[in-house]
Specification:
The protein is of the alpha/beta class and 339 residues long. The protein has eleven helices and 14 strands. Helix 4 (128-142) packs parallel to helix 5. It is elongated, with a radius of gyration of 21 Å. The chain binds iron/sulfur cluster.
């Protein structure tokens, strides 16, 4: 059996050809699976023989939702995969629509010290079906269309790029989720080769790079991946991405009290990224149990913000969504594992 949620339109057409069916049948199957969210092939306008072939060769996979936490601004879903591992997704309820934050790996090996997911080591990459299944379940649950996707749940998506690209391909299908490329954001902790690969791929999504420090020495103390990739190389890759795809890159910066939030840090950050088509997204830290960090005070955050502005850098501040439903990535899963 082939899991239908794991196939792009092109791959489904190829599989149908392999089964002796017309590849154009994919254009009937895809709208039913992703537009109408069909759970079987029953009722599709196809010959009985074809329906039997489909039923014999394709399954509807996707993860099983085992817990949901609801708040006014964000709902969190915990899913169990077929091998018993668990992952989570967050539905963010913005004024302008719904956005789903999807996970791309079981656990994460990047080890960012401020992140709950970093404490749960990577077990494996998610399959395309396991990523698509997160959207399918949430789309059914809310009964309305999704406005956007953030590929910034648990995991480093650039470590699982081939599957992530297929997932993005399926999410964009016009008669399905129909999520435009400009409404899909992928966040990386700065894996330089992956940024170049994504830049040269057919999916020029919005790129968000987690910087969190204006120099390598400080960055290494909070993000182990900084030992492998230097800031100058990350900035060069981000510049390439921006110029190749004519996109503004986002730099994520979480405010950690007394660690990376000084006026000097702000000035050095401005210098580091000056001249790039970018903006900085300042994130208030949402502390997790056992975290050695706390969020910078409001006045400190505002001072940091003002300095970036004075240097001509575009800045936004992320609204804290879903703090009451453990919305820092990895927290629900950590809680379910007793972490
Ligand atoms: S912040 Fe992202 S990359 Fe870093 S440990 Fe957490 S999930 Fe992994």
């Amino acid at each position: 059996m082939t899991d239908i949620y794991g196939l792009t339109l092109k791959k489904l057409a190829d599989k149908l050809t392999e089964l002796g069916e017309k590849p154009s049948r994919a254009d009937i199957i895809f709208p039913a699976v992703y537009g109408e969210l069909a759970r079987s092939f029953d009722g599709l306008p196809l010959k009985q023989e074809t329906l039997c072939t489909l039923a014999e060769n394709f399954s509807f996979g996707g993860p099983e939702c085992i817990e949901k936490l609801v708040s006014e601004t964000a709902d969190k879903y915990l899913f169990r995969l077929s091998d018993g591992n668990t992952i989570e997704s967050v539905l963010m309820k913005h004024e302008f629509g719904y956005n789903v934050c999807v996970s791309t790996q079981v656990g994460c090996n990047m080890g960012c010290r401020f992140c709950a997911s970093g404490r749960l080591k990577k077990v494996r990459d998610l399959t395309v079906s396991e990523m698509v299944g997160q959207l399918i379940h949430i789309r059914r649950d809310i009964g309305t269309r999704l406005g956007g996707i953030s590929v910034m749940g648990i995991g480093e998506p650039l470590e699982n790029l081939a599957n992530v690209l297929d997932f993005i391909d399926i999410a964009q299908y016009p008669k399905g989720f129909d999520i435009g490329i400009k409404h899909i954001t992928l966040s990386t902790c700065g894996l330089v080769p992956g940024i170049y690969k994504l830049a040269d791929s057919s999916a020029p999504v919005n790129l968000a790079v987690s910087l969190h420090a204006p120099d390598d020495a400080l960055r290494r103390t909070i993000m182990p991946s900084a030992n492998k990739y230097a800031l100058n190389d990350i900035i060069a890759a981000a510049r390439y991405y921006s110029e190749k795809n004519n996109r503004r890159v986002t730099f994520e910066y979480v405010m950690l009290d007394g660690v990376n939030d000084s006026d000097e840090c702000a000035a050095r950050l401005a210098e580091l990224i000056s001249g790039l088509n970018c903006y900085v997204n300042i994130i208030r830290y949402n502390p997790t149990d056992g975290s050695p960090f706390s969020c910078s005070p409001h006045e400190r955050i505002m001072s940091f913000y003002d300095i970036l502005k004075k240097h001509g850098i575009g800045v936004t501040m992320r609204r804290e969504l879903g703090a009451s439903v453990n919305a820092a990535c990895g927290q629900l899963r950590a809680a379910s594992l007793g972490g």
